[in-house]
Input
Amino acid sequence: MSTTAPITKANLANLVARLVAGGARVVAPVRKTDGLRYREVTDGAEIVLEPRGLPDMSLKAVVFPPTEPLTSYERKGRDVALTAPPLIFQPTVVLGSRPCDAAGLEILDRVMNWDLRDELWFGRRRATTIVSLACAGPADRSCFCTAVGLAPDATRGSDALLVPVNGGFVLEAVTDAGEALVKGNHDLFGVPAQADAEVRQQARQAVAANLSLDPPAVQAWLSAHFEDPLWDPIALRCHGCGACASVCPTCHCFDVVDEPEDLAHGTRRRNWDTCQAAKFTLHASGHNPRADQNVRFRQRVMHKFEIYPERFGQVLCTGCGRCSRTCPGGQDLPEILAAIQARVGGAA
Amino acid sequence: MTVFTPSFVAPAPAVPYPANVYQPHLVTIEAVRDEAPEVRTLRLKFNDPAVAEKFSFVTGQFGEYSVFGAGEVTFCIASSPTRKGYLECTFRAVGKVTRAMRDLQVGDVMGFRGPYGNRFPIDQWFGKSVLFIAGGIALPPVRSVIWNVLDLRDKFKDVTIVYGARTVADLVYKHELEEWAARKDVKLVTTVDPGGETPDWRGEIGFVPTVVEKLAPPSADTYAVLCGPPIMIKFTLPTLAKLGFPDERVFTTLENRMKCGIGKCGRCNVGPVYVCKDGPVFTAAQLKLLPAEY
Amino acid sequence: MNELRDLARRLLGDGTVKAVVGYEEGPRGVRPVFVTRPEDADQLIFDPRAVQNLVTFLNPRRPHVKRLGKLAVVVKACDARAAAGLLRESQLRRDEVVLIGVRCGGVVQSPEGPATLNEETVAPRCGTCAQRVPTLADHVVGPELPAPPVQSSEDEMMARLDGRPHAERWDFWMAELERCVRCNACREVCPLCFCERCVQDKSEPQWIESSPHVRGNLAWHLTRALHLAGRCSTCGECTRACPAGIPLNLLNRQAARTVAARFGYVVGDDPGVAAPVGTFRQDDAEEFIR
Output
């Protein structure tokens, strides 16, 4: 039986201090002038644990930084020496991530483990303990985690789940790492107790009211209607900017570039990239298989709701709603999915 | 799009992939040969003797070749797996990395990641005939298969090669074309586009699809390997169909913009496939399942 | 609003334009809409949430929009300045577009609303807006509206930076630019970023590192600000679009301030007025040439 134990806000701050003192990096939602974001913290009092709303960008930067060295090279005469980056990373504890963000990482494990294992990804994953905060309900009308098989209190991808109760939280351990966190800091936790199941059910229902979806049916429709003109009017307002991909918990496309420091040294890096950029598929010959925004926009939705599920059995979306919130052009993914669902015929 | 079944999976390579899959092997340029204007072949040898000794791949596979400081670029392995001790790649200098490659000389060090991708299942063609059709700079991937087949010549029935380029100067592997022409167990037809011939040109004059149609190679018990610029593929596929080749017996290799080469970065994703993992070798039947986004 | 809708209906009905680009009520607030049929003209709205600069859809780097044909675009006076820029720089011919000017009383910062205009909510650029009816317009619709409240947050930020020593200003921007992930939203929403091949996408040589580390980000944003100097209408869309919350418009406003001081030029909506970019005058200051 997994441990569930109450913890006060004050003791959460103490936990942070203890983790930092122990050499761990602690990442948590913090609000500054640029909004609520996941940031590295040393002072537990800075952490914002409001169960409504979510940080502006996803958690993926913790295990998949926007830029990351893949290897470094040094020229010595005509010879070259390569230095691989270390595959062991500083232990990181995330406190207060959202269930949609934690689940996103687990969804991405599948492609990162496809035949060849990406040890940069998994090295960081192994070093990271994730304690998520259950949401009390949708942040706004754009949340739809329940429509894609998740929930405001889902534990997928999390090592433990903090559920808000009067006076603090109840922490439910999900994995061994979560158990270890509780056991190793048992003096900060109270006597085991359950959180209110009713409250959690209400939260799920509130999110479910935002969107009803039958993902396998949507997948089948997308597969059979690749050339559907549905995309043309939608794509007109798309700027092709990729802000959606940058905030998304599951968008993971990346570029690989060599960056010389000088004639003798340099680094090969991988950087966040997006299929929404015009040059994503541009060939050296000048041929571009996805030459306009209509087909690029289609690709993003296809990859998330048809291609990734077909290859990896999992929708590449956690229903966090960030793409809709950040899009400067007013694209709304629940609206688009509802339009597809309507074409499928009937509500889910 | 319908459900895609990955095929012709390559066996695990003899030299296992490194723990950091993005770390290249170091290779040194052993030989350089200019094939055509802007087109060059490099012969590469692994610096690590243990890797050089054990390295294996199967025909159809590709690699990511590094010019440190410029970047990586994707090419098929143009040499045959039957020829041990080296790898060859043939490229046209069209962009940042390939232009940097053109500036390298014998003795310079590059990087190689691979082998990646699936294979031409030539073992399934034993006892059958093989028809190779290639155009221009697309001969290199086919050349790997040609030499693989010729090095196992008695396992196959008839071997026919149709190769064309825009002009005589653009024909690559000119020396090997002569070798193939001289062999009694190979039928070679070369062609150049109308206007591309020189006064002493002895081969055909005409576009590759037209020449194939005129040649009318028999389709019975024959596998076709086809590679060329999109326009050539577009017109050759129907020609082969007309000659009676079923789509399952027509093989091609696709090029698409790639970066990681191992199915992580998303760039080469076309419809339900990742060209780097499910390809680059596809049959015409499989191509028809893909949207035309390559 | 009826004036706008009737006009749109007419322009679409008689085939003057193939689409009217305006604002509609979307799921989360006001957003751009492409109305192609006269019967859909009632979708068009205009209220203080009409923040977006719709002139960006005239950017020639949008072939899927160009394919629609001749457009009519709803423009506020600030948007019209961007249209003037495209005309001045020959990216657009005047007869290729119908500009529907709207009389504007200010907009809020977020198209999601609420639509109430006050000192907190109003967009920073509105308070100092010298011209609330575009002169660059084929039609002008909408009632006369009172002057907008003044929002000084951007001015305050600039004033704060003005007084500080260089090292502090450097630190400020380093901290802000650390968050940039090079998504290029700033570039893609900008009407005047129309280069077929953006300087940061050029690879031979790689003038600007594409990696989202501070060094590459600094190179990108300073270069973009310099490339926009004397051209940018300071509409603020870049700041709004940035998912990392970086106040990019401050860079553009600083450049605009410098251009005004040195060349006596402020971006206006008359494409006939020559801009400093591409113009030489005998009395241009030269003290930096030593």
